[in-house]
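[09:14] KT: can someone run the structure on this one? pasting the chain below
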Amino acid sequence: MAFVVRSASSVSTAQARPVVKINNTRMRVVSRAVDKEPTPAPEQAPEVPPFAEVRSETPPPPVTPSGGNQVFKAPFGSVMDFGGKAPEITNGRLAMLGFIAALGAELATGEWVFAQLQDAPIFIPATFALFIVASIIPMNKNKKAESVGPLTPDAELVNGRAAMIGFAALLAIEAIKGDALF
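[09:31] RB: done, C-alpha cells below
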C-alpha cells in the first residue's frame, strides 16, 4: 500500500481527495494498492516521518463519464462540526444579509427589527434557509472558494465577523431602546 500525503494548500481542486485532520492541520490523503511485494510485518515496517511523500507507479484516479475527476463529497458532519469551515462562513453570510436588510428596511419604513420579523414571518426565514443551503452545498462538495477582484475568502470572513457584531449590536440597542435605531 502506498500513501501520498500533501498539505491541503498544495492540492488543486482537480485533485480533490478525502481530507484528514492531523494535529489540527487539514491533510489530503491518497492511497492506492500496488501489486509488488508483500507488506513487511508490523515490527519490520520502516518508520515514515510525518508529512513524508511516498509515490507509487499507479495510474491516475478514474475519470467520471462527464470527463472530470471524481468529486469527493465531504460528510455533512465534517463540514458543520465545530472546527469545520461552514459554521463561520454561513453565519457570516446570514449576518451580512440580515444586517444590511434590517438597516435598509428600518431606514425605509422606520420599523425596528422585531417588527420587521412580525411583518414577514415566512419570507425572512425562507430567505435565510435559501442562503444556508446555497452556502453549504459547495462546501459539502469540497469546492474551493475563489477570489473575484477584492472579494476574497478572507475578506468575506472579516466582513461576516463585522456583520455579526453589527447585527448583534443593532438588536441589543433596539431591545434596550424599545424602538427603531433611526
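[09:33] KT: thanks! The beta strands are 2-7, 19-22, 25-32.
[09:34] RB: yep, looked fine to me
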